[in-house]
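Give me structure tokens for this 531-residue protein.
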Amino acid sequence: MRAFLLMVPLAVLAAVLLPGRFVSALPEPSPKRTHTPHRKATPPNHSWECLLLDSAQMRRVRLDVTIQGRAVSQVWDDVFSQMAAFFDRNHDGQLNRTEAQYLPSAFSWRQLLWGRSVPYTGQPIPWSELATHGQEQIQAADLARYYRSVGVGNVSIAYGKSPSAATVSAAMTRMLDRNGDQIISRSEWQAAPTLLMNRDRNGDERISAGELVSRVDYPGSAGMRLVFPLSQGSPSSSEEIGPIVLLPTDQSDTAWADTIVRQRDKNRDGQLDAEEAGLPTDTWARLDTNGDKSLTARELASWRSHAPDASWSIEMGAWEADGPTVHHQLTAGATRFVLRGDRGQLPAAMIAARQRLLAQFAEVSQEGNVRADELSKRSLYDLQQLLTIADRDGNGQLSLAEVKSWLALQEAAAQAHVLVKILDHGHGWFERLDTNADGGLSRHELQTHAEQLASEAGYRTAPPRHMFGVVSRGLPQNTFGKPTHAGPAWFRAMDRNQDGVVSRSEFVGPAHAFEKRDQNRDGVLSADEVE
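Here you go.
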């Protein structure tokens, strides 16, 4: 059970997960919309909101992320001010066309998510997109407006689908549905622990996805994509939208409501009835202001003036601190969304990048400076790229002070980077049963939850959709997190497969000691039984 999707620009990945690998290479996507340079700027919204959709239900979630008590967008405001000062080479408090040509692209800023400290220079940002009122000078507010219009300046969101979840779930259905009627009955669920544990080939008392389906790596490599808000001009009316829809921070932009109505309007009457909308009863009553038992796009758009179905706050803490303690979940119809926190890989990556750049500079510098021809001769690509941007006095050389000044700006931006990475497992039995998110099914999990599933008629033919999200600085260190288990030290030491219980084979001691502690006679010792 893990997954969730969501949205805004960034780029990603190569994170080692549980038993498998989660991928890397989040390429810069082809933007879903064309950003209009002259569109009126709106103040940054310190929250972001999304819709959680399935065929029958629709829910709205608001997420407020803060860094040491300040909204992420406010931290980014400081970065934009620092950026404006860095590129202001004539120190007049503004940027002219010449100074602005050195500004990094939005893609360059998103490269920080995987620890790249030297920007890809590429083509200069068109002046018309920076100076939207035709002025000859721009300031930090203009930088903020431009970068936010292309997805930099608030929480970044990426989404990917697990490629193996459907295959593993189908295999489990075939194994459990012994009579082939496409329904997993109570008796078939009751037989599941024994049936599935028979496939424990390595004897670790856990069933991995690879033991159910040969050569499957769980959760598998999932290609991630950046997600943009569903705002004016994107996506097209004919384009299918996913189970998670990011809403624009500008609440006056109501184009999302038109798209939602078009996508969910099954009878093509231009509005949504109660079944098509899939809203909670009280929400429906508030939005259907004229009482005609249908919602127009305008009525749906008014939803944002009401409280969301769930409102979550996440505090990231200091740069060097552990990740946020987060565990939120929401269910909408047959979709379950779980969100957790992780420290992320970016802090360590930025430390390594700083050390590498300073070591390279020290190796080739003479009297505290490095010339362009020396960098070219040594094939020091990162410092060559950096010279283009960081040579603030324009003397064709890179000084140690200029390198450190650039690194300070990069580190400020890195500390503002917060990523929500969402993995969509689809409708998977494996995820439904793997309640501790360790990538394996223990006998205890199967015994505990098989009876529950047997009584849940809605899960007999298909499990819910699992979407799992993690909030971190840069790529998460571990997308699913490491399960934490209770119990005394000796108990945790005996629990070799880390499933939170100690089986007979794991127990080191006489049989009568095990039997005495196994109070419920389920064949395993829980933390409660040994405390």
